[in-house]
Amino acid sequence: MSEHRARKRFGQNFLHDPGTIRRILGAVDPRPGQHLVEIGPGRGALTEGLLEGAGALDVIELDRDLVGPLQQRLGGSGDLRVHNADALHFDLCGLVSPDQRLRLVGNLPYNISTPLLFRFLDQSGCIADLHLMLQKEVVDRICADPGNKTYGRLSVMVQTVCSTQRLFVIGPGAFSPAPKVDSAMLRLTPDDPPRYRLRDTALHARVVAAAFSQRRKTLRNSLSGLIDPQLIRAAGLDPAARAEQLGVDDFVSLANHAAAQGTRERL
Predict the structure, then answer these.
(1) Which pTM value belongs to this model?
(2) Residue 6, SS3 per DSSP
(3) For the domain that residue 110 is a member of, what is the CATH number?
(4) Residues 87-95, mean pLDDT to the nearest whole number
(5) DSSP assignment, residue 244?
(6) By percentage, how much of the chain surpasses pLDDT 70?
(7) CA 260 to each of CA 207, 208, 222, 254, 266: distance values in angstroms, whole numbers, following the listed order
(8) E strand spans, the chain
(9) Which of 82, 181, 211, 225 has its CA 20 to 30 A from that of 99?
(10) What are the phi and psi torsion angles at 194 (to 5°)?
């Protein structure tokens, strides 16, 4: 298993540091009866501990050359179900019944971490929590507060559906090959019930993306052609404000006012 070389096209950086592995497993704290799913198990650094803790585990691994060694080494440690698939297109909710929620753990490849994260958020209704290793810079952006220079589209979109917590930083030496940047462990807990009610999730995403597309512009300018200043005021916001000054609730209010206006116009 250790002979498998990391492949650039899969963005592989294999976790190997025993202290970091113990720390992550302690943060996840897998228990019997919980439905755990690991994204990108790689050589199985976390897989063994997750399987031992929960007794059963689904893993989603894109690299088919890692599937056989995983099954061979850990198949006898518990009920290990290996899915040779792309997590970007995998139906996580299909793994559980409608009344169940799963726990997601993963070391996400830097090159596709944001698309993967949005894919997971789309399925947040069946997820109890997520423990993810990401580039530290990405974790900082996800957890940022309004007014912070790292606060942006990713912060708003994640915080609209989840509470966020940066757990600890992981240095490059914990991985093989060592990445050129620090990583961090992130805990996301989807709101249950949802904290915010969106009339139109697609419109909300468009509003947030447009508002942050040119950070230095005011809302009046960045949202021009999408939302007029009068509607911005109706949502209780200043058209002269910039996106980084708005809280998550402000974006929800703005998008919901825009959706309601659109609904009225169609009647």
Answers:
(1) 0.91
(2) coil
(3) 3.40.50.150
(4) 96
(5) G
(6) 94
(7) 14, 17, 20, 10, 10
(8) 14-15, 36-39, 56-61, 79-84, 102-107, 127-135, 162-170, 175-176, 183-190
(9) 82
(10) -55, 135
- Contact call for residues 223 and 176 (beta carbons, < 8 A): no
Q: Residue 84: beta bridge partners?
A: 61
Question: pLDDT at position 19, please?
Answer: 96
Name residue 169's amino acid.
V
Asked if 170 and 18 count as a contact pair (C-beta separation under 8 A), the reply is no
Element housing 30 (H / E): none
CB 161 within 8 A of CB 206: no
CA–CA gap between residue 13 and residue 34 (Å, rounded)? 27
Distance CA 219, CA 204 (A): 14
**131: pLDDT strictly greater than 80:** yes
Cα separation, 123 vs 190, whole angstroms? 10
Same domain, 213 and 167: no
Is residue 259 within 8 Å of residue 200, measured between CB atoms?
yes
Shared domain for 37 and 83, answered yes or no, is: yes
For residue 87, give both structure tokens: 């997590």
| Residues 224, 168 contacting (CB under 8 angstroms) | no
